[in-house]
Amino acid sequence: MANSYYSIIEPIIFTASRLEVIANRCFFRPIEMNISNVKILGLLCRKKTMTAKEIMKLAGGTKSNISQRLDYLERKGFIKTQKDVSGDKRKLLVKLTVSGRKKVLEIKENLKKIKLEMEAHFDPKEIKQHYAFFNKLNNLIDLKEKDPSRCNLKINENCQ
Q1: How far is CA 72 from the centre of its chain?
Q2: Does a structural domain hold residue 87?
Q3: Residues 22 and 8 occupy one common structural domain
Q4: Which of 64, 89, 94, 144 has its CA 20 to 30 A from that of 13?
Q5: In a domain, 106, yes or no
Q6: Other CB atoms within 10 Å distance of the CB of residue 19
Q7: pLDDT digits (tens, 9 = 90+) for 86-142
Q8: How many domains does the chain have?
Q9: In terms of C-beta distances under 8 Å and separation of at least 24 residues, what long-range contacts does 57-62 make, across chains too?
Q10: Quick one: 74 and 22 in the same domain?
Q11: Residue 77: is its pLDDT beyond 60?
């Protein structure tokens, strides 16, 4: 059982690493963004105003990293931040600007082009199988994130 487990997970881990490199080189760097920036813009696109703390929780990352990302996005004019004057003045409220909405549309269009380019290399049956596999994998990851006690991954005893 352990061998079949590792035969499934190792290619996923290595492929994920390679995809991250390719995504950064071919997609994010040319548009002067990174995955954290895109996550934050995506969150703000769905919800008009968020606190920095909410963004940190949903996007993942440390307080320092999110703060740096927010500073960068604000310097670029994609977001606007302000102190919460109606409640807790320590809260930082974050909103997407018009430029930010345009950037989100640009990102979506670029992702659509990349998706079409990638899917051209697979037949419809393969695409359906890939989507099914990755949906199942993401659901499993979601379960493990919600309940870390369900994460019973064990390191192979032969691995030193």
Answers
A1: 17
A2: yes
A3: yes
A4: 64
A5: no
A6: 10
A7: 766 578 899 999 999 999 999 999 889 888 888 899 999 999 998 998 899 888 888
A8: 2
A9: 61/36
A10: no
A11: yes
DSSP 23-80: IIIIIIGGGT--HHHHHHHHHHHHSSEEEHHHHHHHH-S-HHHHHHHHHHHHHTTSEE
Strands, sheet with 49-51, edge to edge from the N-terminal-most edge strand? 49-51, 92-96, 79-83
Residue 89's CATH number: 1.10.10.10
Provide the token pair at 71: 């500073």
Same domain as 23, residue 53: no
Interval 22-47 mean pLDDT: 89
pTM of the predicted model as reported, rounded to 2 decimal places? 0.72
For residues 145 and 124, give the distance between their C-alpha atoms in angstroms, rounded to a whole number. Answer: 31
* Domain around 26: 1-31
User: What amino acid is encoded at 83 in this protein?
Assistant: K
CA 57/CA 86 separation, integer angstroms: 22
For the chain, give the number of residues.
Answer: 160
